[in-house]
Amino acid sequence: MLHQFKFENFYSFAETVEVSCVLGGQSPKNDLSCLADTGDRLSKLLAVIGPNASGKTNVLKALAFLQWFVADSFSAQQPNDDIPIEHHFFSENPNSTFQIVFDYQGQLYRYELTLNKQRVVYEALFVKTSKLYSYIFKREWDEKSHQYTIAQKDFGFDRKEAAKVRQNASLISTAAQYGVELATQMRLVCGKIFTNVNSLGRVSTASRIDELLEVTEVFQRNKSLGKQASDLLCKLDLGLQAIVIKSETVTDPKTQKSTEISVPYGIHRSGQAERQLELWRESSGTQRAYTLLSILLPALTLGGVAVIDELEADLHPDMLVPLLELFINPATNPKQAQLIFSSHSHEILEMLSKDQVLLVEKDPQGNSEAWLLSDMEGVRRDDNLYAKYRSGAYGAVPNL
């Protein structure tokens, strides 16, 4: 489970931002939280709230970037590619830094990373032993010798191969290619982070049809998830009786090459009559809910983390509650998955505690700032968070 992550000099954030899911001793013990194997009480939900262009998406990008870099930087890049990292516009610091703390099989790990577009400057993985952390590996760039100094403790990566690690790839993603067990396990941990965000922002394909076809392949590979998505969509008052997936043959008019594709249909009934409609002819809200479930359901199934930008996009605000309930209700979230999301539907503040709200705003110099509502002095647990936020008492509202 995710305990915390922090970053510095990344997109609109020049200073260090720390995002914590660890709840204090005064936090209520309810279904909004869960107990990790390490004994820490963690939040299942974290809402990122703030005006347009304040930096909400950039908070989510930091976690998405870490997930990609640790797991896929070796296979996703050529040896001479620049690392797709963006520093703050006006920062004189050439490097961005990241840290993430998570638990795996009852142990607490901390991963640290400093890098720029050209290379990794510093990378390390630690495991908590008693009250302290002990390193598993450390990798540091030596500017004088133009090579890395690498120290390992029980990591198991061959020293000769470790010395040849590429400057634009993580040691973990590289070691996993050589079958290093712990590296493979860490990649699996990263594989439990599901998101609709990449380095450019919210993910979108060339067309809505392409996006729906990609999502359908997810459900076709895992028919159990597809059945869950169909059942949930029918409960959301979208006028659907079911979602069915059909295999169809399409022919490229230029090459005349035929391909089998999986096409999603919405089933509608009126009395004894039944009609089928391709999902891209359904409403934008139906399409959006279908796409969202392809991210949320795998996270719930594996006990992972769903990272969603603009959770309510194209949806009626009332639809957010049943989506959040998927994570709150232990019956639908038995593996204690977590959801981190940005939203402009501020009514959700009535569902959350002050530990579960991250406020974001940008100052006149173009620098984003983020803070947990629980870190503000004078915020009480029995406050009406929605009313006080709307009144401007907490900041992070548009200056119109």
UniProtKB/TrEMBL annotation:
Pfam families: AAA_21. One of its GO terms (molecular function) is ATP binding. InterPro entries: ATPase_AAA_core (IPR003959), P-loop_NTPase (IPR027417). The keyword Nucleotide-binding applies. The keyword Nucleotide-binding applies. Residues 46-349 form the ATPase AAA-type core domain. It comes from Thiothrix subterranea. Transmembrane segments: none annotated. PANTHER family: ATPASE AAA-TYPE CORE DOMAIN-CONTAINING PROTEIN, ATPASE-LIKE PROTEIN. Keywords: ATP-binding, Nucleotide-binding. This is ATP-binding protein. It comes from the Bacteria.
